[in-house]
Structures are given as C-alpha cells and as structure tokens.
Amino acid sequence: GAVVSQHPSWVICKSGTSVKIECRSLDFQATTMFWYRQFPKQSLMLMATSNEGSKATYEQGVEKDKFLINHASLTLSTLTVTSAHPEDSSFYICSASFSAGELFFGEGSRLTVL
Amino acid sequence: GDSVTQMEGPVTLSEEAFLTINCTYTATGYPSLFWYVQYPGEGLQLLLKATKADDKGSNKGFEATYRKETTSFHLEKGSVQVSDSAVYFCALRGFGNEKLTFGTGTRLTIIP
C-alpha cells in the first residue's frame, strides 16, 4: 500500500522553542493531508485539514498561530509547534489521501517538551 | 456531531481465543465505517471497512458487519494469534466528508 512517512519520529525540545514535524507521501500525490493529536489512552483528535497550496482548515479549539501547518507541495506537509510548552507534549500523526480516496497514515511523531 | 464509542481495553487473550471488540457510533446520514490497526512502532493501517448497512468487511481473518439498526460495527476474529497484538481503532467517515472520527482505541495483547 501507499506509504506516508513522518520525521522526526521522536523529538525532545526545551520550553519556548519551536519544533517542525514533516509528513511526506512517498509514492502518491496527496491532495489532502490531515494532522491528528493523540493523548495517552485517548482517541486521535483531528487538528486540521490541509489542501496543497491553500491555507489549512483548523478544527474548533485548535490554535492556528500555535500549530502552523504548511502544505507546499503534493508530497509534503509540515506541522510547526511554535513556542512549545510542556502541555504540547503529545503524539502527532498525519494522514494523507489522494482525491478523497483511502487515507494512509504516518508512523507518528512523539513530542516531549521539557 | 459524529462520535464513535469503542470498547475500552486493554484486552488480553490466549492464542486461538475468540475476539470481539465492540464499537458503536452516532452519525447523521449514512457514514462509512472502518477498523484501523496500529502495530507497535508503526502507523495506522486500514484493516477493513464497510460503506453501507449490512455490508461485511473482512481481512486477515477479522470481520465486522455494518449494523444500522444497532449503530454498531463490532470487530470479530475466530482464532487470534500472537501477531494480532496491536491497538485497534474503530472510525467513521460521514457521507461526502474526508474527515475520520476515531474511537479511543483498544489495545489487544495475545499470550502464547
């Protein structure tokens, strides 16, 4: 099946710094990418939907200035957590689809903010 | 809004036991229903899906039937293996909508 890759898989940063997570579709063009956040023992919470070349659509309650999403090409979307704080520590997962077809998920990126 | 309620885990079974993981949903219209599996250290993978009432999705010995009357999509397998140990997520996708709504996930551990 199609492959979606995230990088880094694990990142530790100091409070106040910014962290960028990449999501790449390796063998197909992803017209739409989704970013999820997963808390321990909880479901995946959709943060935002991004379409290539346009601004991301954020879910209610998600701070767009805090979580910057860029979908500059059909194979790459990035999530930047700006001025990270310990409460931003979480597991971030991206998924990608082509033309409203099947969704493919990345392996996830674990962020720990000290 | 749409929601998915999934059996809480963790679930621990012996090899060759029968597995059921319950999933019920709330949605308007006619959603598509999915089971995803997440093996340790990997991303979510689609396990099976059903797009309309009474459809049965099946894959790798797992089955789930879309029951509109009970708004359920329970996952079953007749004889589990150690390699089935993973986290299983029930999810729905509203008609004409790309977004997935997930349940909380159920961690399954199979003991030899």
Set down the secondary structure blueprint.
The complex is a heterodimer of chains A (114) and B (112).
Chain A: E1 4-7, E2 10-13, E3 19-25, E4 32-38, E5 44-51, E6 57-58, E7 67-73, E8 76-81, E9 90-97, E10 104-105, E11 109-113
Parallel strand pairs in A: 2-11
Antiparallel strand pairs in A: 1-3, 3-8, 4-5, 4-9, 5-6, 7-8, 9-10, 9-11
Chain B: E1 3-6, E2 11-14, E3 19-21, E4 23-26, E5 32-38, E6 44-50, E7 56-59, E8 62-65, E9 75-77, E10 86-93, E11 101-102, E12 106-111
Parallel strand pairs in B: 2-12
Antiparallel strand pairs in B: 1-4, 3-9, 5-6, 5-10, 7-8, 8-9, 10-11, 10-12
In short:
The complex is a heterodimer of chains A (114) and B (112). By secondary structure, chain A is mainly beta. Chain A contains no helices and eleven strands.
Explained architecture:
The complex is a heterodimer of chains A (114) and B (112). Chain A is built from no helices and 11 strands. Chain A has strands spanning 4-7, 10-13, 19-25, 32-38, 44-51, 57-58, 67-73, 76-81, 90-97, 104-105, 109-113. In chain A, a hairpin with a 2-residue loop joins β7 (67-73) and β8 (76-81). The mean pLDDT of chain A is 90. In chain A, the strands form 2 sheets. In chain A, strands 2, 4, 5, 6, 9, 10 and 11 form a 7-stranded mixed beta sheet that branches. Chain A has a 4-stranded antiparallel beta sheet with strand order 1-3-8-7, with no helix packed on it. The termini of chain A are far apart. By secondary structure, chain A is an all-beta fold. In chain A, 0% of the residues lie in helices and 53% in strands. In chain B, 34% of the residues are buried. In chain B, strands 2, 5, 6, 10, 11 and 12 form a 6-stranded mixed beta sheet that branches. Chain B has a 4-stranded antiparallel beta sheet with strand order 3-9-8-7, with no helix packed on it. In chain B, a hairpin with a 7-residue loop joins β10 (86-93) and β11. By secondary structure, chain B is an all-beta fold.
